[in-house]
Write a structure and sequence with these properties.
By secondary structure, the protein is α+β, with helices and mostly antiparallel strands. It has seven helices and four strands; from the N terminus they run H-H-E-H-H-E-H-E-H-E-H. It has one domain: NADH Oxidase. Helix 3 packs antiparallel against helix 6.
């Protein structure tokens, strides 16, 4: 059995608990190719349903492409604001929610359901497991980046139609995550949306049930 030392375990948990969704504070320092490769390789070693490895990683450095994506963000941000009432609308519009033009590189992580043919072990009953697999790759990428002191921000306020056009995606390929990667001035001690009071961190006991939905353990 390949055991982990206490120091190695501490490093894992430190990475998990200090990971942040970074939207601001990017610095003008390029990510070395060997570091970016290590991060992408960690993502590529995520678990996947039926070992289908249904992801691809599109690296985006072009200012023109980023500008197209940023325009989509700006449009979708205003549309989303219309669903909120004051004062929440104004607070939402005041938040910095992307680093598309500021980060060193953008990465679009996609899902290709056609890899290895139509039959994938484990995907028949729950087709969504393909997308879930890509999300596992995103989490691996995020944690590896944090370990390398690289910030990552997931931009979900976007039109997938715009991403398809900007990146030339085939019709069957689904854009799952649009990520902004770069070195940052600092990593916040708490998530930005917790720091700003947008939402609180839930207690662990509030999200753990036993045996059935909303069933709590018997009081001792």
């Amino acid at each position: 059995m390949n055991e982990f030392s206490d120091e190695e375990k501490d490093g894992l948990y430190k990475t998990i608990f200090s990971r942040r969704d970074v939207r601001s504070g990017f610095v003008k320092t390029a990510i070395p190719d060997e570091v970016l490769t290590k991060i992408l390789n960690a993502a590529h070693h995520a678990p996947s349903v039926g070992f289908s490895q249904p992801w691809n990683f599109i690296l985006i450095r072009s200012a023109a492409t980023r500008s197209m994506v940023k325009a989509s963000f700006d449009e979708e941000r205003i549309l989303a604001a219309g669903r909120a009432e004051e004062p929440r609308r104004s607070k939402y519009l005041s938040l910095k929610l992307e680093g598309i033009m500021d980060s060193a590189v953008n990465v679009c992580v996609t899902y290709d359901p056609t890899k290895f043919g139509p039959f994938v072990i484990g995907r028949n009953s729950i087709p969504e497991t393909g997308v879930y697999s890509v999300c596992c790759a995103v989490q691996n990428l995020w944690l590896a980046a944090r370990a390398e002191s690289v910030g990552v921000g997931w931009v979900s306020i976007l039109s997938n139609d715009t991403l398809r056009e900007a990146l030339g995606l085939p019709s069957h390929v689904v854009p799952v995550a649009y990520l902004c990667l770069g070195y940052v001035k600092k990593f916040s001690k708490r998530p930005d949306l917790e720091e700003t009071g947008w939402l609180p961190r839930l207690n662990l006991e509030d999200v753990v049930y036993y045996e059935r939905w909303e069933q709590r353990p018997d009081p001792q």
